[in-house]
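forwarding from the other thread:

> can someone predict this with NAP?

sure thing
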Amino acid sequence: MKALRFHEPGDPLAVLRLEEVPLPEPGPGEVRLRMVARPINPSDLLQVQGVYGRKPTLPATAGLEGLGVIEALGDGVTGWAIGQRALPMGAQGTWAEALLTPASNLYPVPDNLAEDQAAQAVVNPLTAWLMADQLGLGPGQWLIQSAAASAVGKVLIQLGHLRGFKTLGLVRRPEAVQELLDLGADAVLCTDDPNWMKQVAECVPGGAHAAVDAVGGSLGGEMVKLLRPGATMLVYGALSMEPLQLPGGQLIFRTATVRGFWLTDWKKRATPSEREKAMVDLLAAMTSGHLVVPVEASYPLDHWRDAVAHAQRTGRSGKVLIR
Ligand SMILES: NC(=O)c1ccc[n+]([C@@H]2O[C@H](COP(=O)([O-])OP(=O)(O)OC[C@H]3O[C@@H](n4cnc5c(N)ncnc54)[C@H](OP(=O)(O)O)[C@@H]3O)[C@@H](O)[C@H]2O)c1
């Protein structure tokens, strides 16, 4: 089978190679999925670059999520059937024609959920869902978020509508402002505008009830100044690749909490029933159309170079998928 592998960390376009590898046979408790679609997420690219929290043994097949169809069952696997659609949680190596995974890590996909939506449910929508849970945002409360035009950001905007909390999004491109207002954000500001912090203070008098930051650097630090006393900011990304510059005085006088969120860690700590409940509820919200993750383009595995280059462009309207 074909697998998109890397033998050393580096620039994805330089180190990834589409290689022919043996089709793996499932051992006891395992299943083999025929992969149908996978998104290209920042974490996939960071892992190939060698700067992600999960470092596989090399050579490794890239890709941390995707949708598959079961094509072989190992001994002792019950409750799953060949031909069934499934999502592997915590997978490594989805950018291949097939993936071997423990059956215990699989979640069934509702029949009515479109392939391009299911393929990207397990990383970004689940992260948005869990962060909103952890922040305990109630009706009318304000969440401020950076990188609001990201897949996670767009799900948080839609979750605000579902759960009744308000979202203020920060974006770096002026064109993203109207797009996110159309999606239902309560306020969107471009950090290009020198007055953006003043405008946030006008939109959210008294400060935000919570914040989530995926950018870091000075922006992440500025967001702490926009919290109301006692509020929490979750840091879940470092897109600027700059160290988060936290203002010590603001942390103290606002008695603010800043802590990290990492989905991989949640998966390790959550009980099987907590994982099951989160997935069932999330997939139901996606199937009903309340949560939609846009797709900008799809490429076949053979055209992976075009796909990876496209995924690295700024100003995308949605995910790039490898089909
Ligand atoms: N901690 C976790 O468990 C976890 C789980 C899932 C995702 N994440 C992280 O969440 C973040 C978003 O992921 P995603 O897949 O939702 O993103 P995405 O859909 O690929 O979109 C990335 C967004 O970030 C914006 N952006 C990129 N670099 C930026 C910078 N330096 N300053 C400001 N904005 C910037 C882009 O802006 P433009 O629209 O202007 O190009 C784009 O809107 C990533 O950092 C990812 O690693 C973390």
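The CA atoms of residues 160 and 266 lie 22 Å apart. thats all i got for now
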